[in-house]
């Protein structure tokens, strides 16, 4: 079953076409990465799929609901971790999580249970009572992902989840993302080739708002005849020029 | 429920900022004591405590504008609001969530001002309660103005416009620091067009139990409160759609 399906999705800003007739499908439970250099249209695509930005043309279906006609239904199914840190800085980590639970209408008992469950799963215990704004960048990203997860989304959107993090923090966050694989559908954007390669079931390569190729790492390598994904990526992007 | 959850979060963000507490609660009381000390050393009747205190309470509300504007501008500049736009929270949840927690803060601030003025010789009567309750339309105007500024401006601009310009405008045009008749002319006319002098006069009248005079100043304040609230809601929803 498809978790996400886009049909000729377009986003136009005056003279710039940020996303150009994008068509792809993501299966339920899949981890799908949108990979591309800066300005490829990855974040704009995520913004449209999460109902933050209205498309200029086409449509997309998230969990079977249209992003243009049924955004309220879409919002009930998704969790989003934006590119920048998205935590309430003067609230503790626990209060940030309680806030999201409250917004999704969870009972007190369910809120407690979800916080306990996720703190154990993502090892948040040590920072639960600390102010979110005082945490390191890596911890804030981790909290940000948990905030997106706590509403029990069917589809999780992670926009550049490891951008600006040091190597150790990045590897730790990869482990968190790996632990979620198969449990929910994940749509991830990144411009790190090794990140897409290490985490994804399938990868969509974007450039100038267009989708150049979609497939597993092996399929993409086969298509270009390269033995290394980095070379594959460069070859596909140059081919698309 | 969703709205109250968000309102609770906004209250925590505001109250945990020590600058908010110091300026919102402390600064008006400091001013009250400072101007009373000046009054004690001058022969003219410029800052009598019974007229100064209601004026200070109105001036103090300008800080509520600054707080609400800063909170919204900060949320807009971080990705936090963007995250919340992808949740089932609606536009009205956001607007009420930002405005509701500041109202009780405004009442507490006003009550503290009146309590602090008692040792300085403020006449204690039941009229103080009228003055506290009567602050509602003025508080709504100030908080809505914060929502409007926060929806249109960045954090730095909010600091300049709400923190410096608006607090000065509200002080100069309210007639709290000096009698507007002393300046007269265009300045006085401009002051009468703006809501600040009406707010200060209404609060003074309520404190002295002169309901008739208070009522005569109510209309411009209510009109400004409605106008600014409508503009604030429009601008907030517009920036929300533009995300």
Write up what this structure looks like.
The complex is a heterodimer of chains A (241) and B (243). With 241 residues, chain A is α/β, with parallel strands linked by helices. Chain A has helices at residues 42-49, 71-77, 93-103, 108-122, 137-149, 167-180, 193-199, 217-224, 229-239, and strands spanning 2-13, 16-27, 31-36, 57-62, 65-66, 78-81, 155-159, 185-190, 202-207, 210-215. In chain A, 39% of the residues lie in helices and 27% in strands. Chain A starts with a strand and ends with a helix. The mean pLDDT of chain A is 91. Chain B is mainly alpha-helical and 243 residues long. In chain B, helix 1 runs parallel beside helix 6, helix 2 packs antiparallel against helix 3 (49-60) and helix 7 packs across helix 9. Chain B is globular, with a radius of gyration of 18 Å. The interface between A and B is medium-sized, with 32 and 22 residues.
List the helices and strands and how they pair.
The complex is a heterodimer of chains A (241) and B (243).
Chain A: E1 2-13, E2 16-27, E3 31-36, H1 42-49, E4 57-62, E5 65-66, H2 71-77, E6 78-81, H3 93-103, H4 108-122, H5 137-149, E7 155-159, H6 167-180, E8 185-190, H7 193-199, E9 202-207, E10 210-215, H8 217-224, H9 229-239
Parallel strand pairs in A: 3-8, 3-9, 6-7, 7-8
Antiparallel strand pairs in A: 1-2, 1-4, 4-5, 9-10
Helix pairs in contact in A: 3-4, 3-5, 5-6, 8-9
Chain B: H1 2-15, H2 18-40, H3 49-60, H4 62-77, H5 80-85, H6 91-99, H7 102-117, H8 127-133, H9 136-152, H10 155-172, H11 180-183, H12 185-193, H13 195-207, H14 211-242
